[in-house]
Design brief:
The complex is a heterodimer. Chain A has helices spanning about 5-15, 20-45, 50-65, 70-85, 95-120, 125-135, 140-170, 180-190, 195-225, 225-230, 235-240. Chain A is flat and about 75 Å long. Helices cover about 80% and strands about 0% of the residues of chain A. By secondary structure, chain B is mainly alpha-helical. Chain B has a single domain (about 5-230), classed as MetI-like fold. Chain B contains 9 helices and no strands. The chains are: A mainly alpha, B mainly alpha.
């Protein structure tokens, strides 16, 4: 069996690592726009209008059924075609990362709206009624009572979608984006695929720690702001003790 | 916007004829992963010393890396290493004769196994421990207690997650093109490239996936209803 070239591995690792910034930038922007879409979908879902909430449900289920590569290709090939055909706008100068961000914003729009819905439903109905009882308006009840608690209920899921996004985003290499995986794929190809083992180990050792760190961070945040603690009114006490 | 409807119409049956490959990949990967997932889940529940650590590292590694990277490793690296191993042992074996489908099954089952392990472990742990003890008390063996008492109750809890794993596996088969296996997405890629009609080809498979996964979800929902019948509310 041939030996593992540690020097090549190290060289690749150092060369690929800076491309984490590309990965993180599409993760960040997809989350940002995804949350925007998600808020829209959630509002539609709870709007009480049957057509709007049906449309929101259809959007969520369709997004659930589509493999990432398929939507990625659809956006990558379809959007420029549509822009050119309908509006006469050329998208030739638009960077590949834009298509990646659009694709994953659409996906995250569906998943974040599911998370928001779950978070909203996690806060008991009695809380809203209590809010009205003490004389708060609908909006006040929402942003003072429901929202702070719903956000806490959402935290573990938000961690999961960030991890999901980092991993699924790797598929952007199929449309030629140079992110972590894309760069690794290219480096390996340039060397005639002779150092596949080194490349793959390097890639795994970039992605894996990212996930582990994110999992730890979110577990920590979750513990800090846990809903159960807050309801029991122990939050301040606990943090005081820890100090 | 100038869609080539005629191409879409003509390509659809062609693409659909590769649906059996997609379904075969899904079924193969799932069948391969269920026994391992069950074994791993039991290792975790019974807290088997060393094996438990190995299983958690496996779970963490699979959860922590993109599925496409796992596919690269299985498809590009495994045959090479196996061949070297066979040669070094003087075995007269040509690994490259092995059908590419096998690599696809293995690669896709890696993540299915990991997520099913979590589903099985979590669902078995929701069944009260006292039930297991009670079953043993009335003279059932461990195997009987699991088969007759624990599993039927755990199944209802596990079903939603199992549905997710099945859906994710179907979606992951769309990456089989990276392993030179032509399934629905692979065929669309080829047809789209030949006719320079990528968008239309992908619209076709978009429909195929929405329909196939939609039907799968409906069927699994039915199965879930059947599975929760033992569940004590």
């Amino acid at each position: 069996m041939r030996t593992f070239h540690w020097d090549i591995f190290l060289k690749f690792y150092i060369e690929i690592l800076p491309y984490l910034s590309v990965t993180f930038s599409y993760v960040f922007f997809s989350l940002l726009f995804g949350f925007g879409i998600g808020i829209g979908i959630t509002v539609m879902k709870f709007s009480g209008k049957r057509i709007l909430s049906a449309l929101a449900s259809i959007y969520i289920s369709v997004m659930r059924c589509v493999p990432s590569v398929v939507l990625l290709f659809l956006i990558y090939y379809g959007l420029p075609m549509m822009m050119k055909g309908e509006f006469g706008i050329s998208m030739d100068h638009i960077g590949t990362i834009v298509y990646v961000i659009i694709t994953f914003s659409l996906f995250l729009g569906a998943s974040t709206s599911e998370i928001m819905r779950a978070g909203y439903l996690a806060v008991g109905k009695g809380q809203r009624e209590a809010g009205y009882m003490v004389g708060l308006s609908g909006w006040q009840t929402f942003y003072r009572i429901i929202f702070p608690q719903a956000v806490r209920a959402c935290i573990p899921n938000i961690g999961n979608i960030i991890i999901y996004m980092i991993k699924e985003g790797a598929l952007a290499y199929t449309i030629g984006l140079q992110d972590v995986l894309g760069r690794g794929y290219q480096l390996n190809s340039l060397k005639g695929n002779a150092y596949s083992a080194e490349t793959y180990v390097a890639l795994a050792l970039i992605y894996w720690p990212c996930t582990i760190i994110l999992e730890k961070v979110f577990a920590y945040i979750e513990k800090k702001v846990s809903l159960a603690d807050m309801i029991a009114g122990q939050k301040t006490e606990v943090s005081m003790e820890e100090i | 916007m100038g869609l080539d409807y005629e191409f879409m119409w003509k390509a659809f049956p062609d693409i659909l004829s590769y649906l059996p490959v997609t379904l075969k990949l899904t079924a193969g990967a799932l069948i391969l992963s269920v026994p391992f997932a069950l074994l791993f889940a039991m290792i975790q529940i019974r807290k088997v010393p060393l094996l438990r650590k190995i299983v958690s590292i496996y779970l963490s590694l699979i959860r922590g890396t993109p599925i496409i990277l796992q596919i690269f490793v299985i498809y590009n690296l495994m045959p090479y290493l196996l061949q070297k191993y066979a040669d070094a042992r003087g075995m007269n074996l040509n690994i490259y004769d092995l059908n590419g489908m096998w690599y696809a099954y293995i690669a896709l089952s890696l993540s299915a196994t990991a997520f099913l392990t979590e589903a099985f472990r979590a669902s078995i742990e929701t069944v009260d421990k006292g039930q297991f003890e009670a079953a043993c008390m009335v003279g059932m063996s461990r195997g009987q207690a699991y088969r007759r008492i624990i599993f039927p109750q755990a199944a209802g809890v596990a079903m939603p997650v199992i549905t997710n794993v099945v859906v994710d596996t179907i979606k992951a088969t769309s990456l089989a093109f990276a392993m030179a296996v032509t399934e629905v997405t692979g065929r669309a890629k080829i047809l789209g490239g030949e006719n320079l009609r990528y968008f239309e080809a992908y619209l076709d498979i978009f429909l195929v996936y929405v329909i196939v996964i939609g039907i799968t979800e409906i069927l699994l929902k039915k199965l879930e209803k059947y599975c929760v019948r033992y569940r004590v509310a």
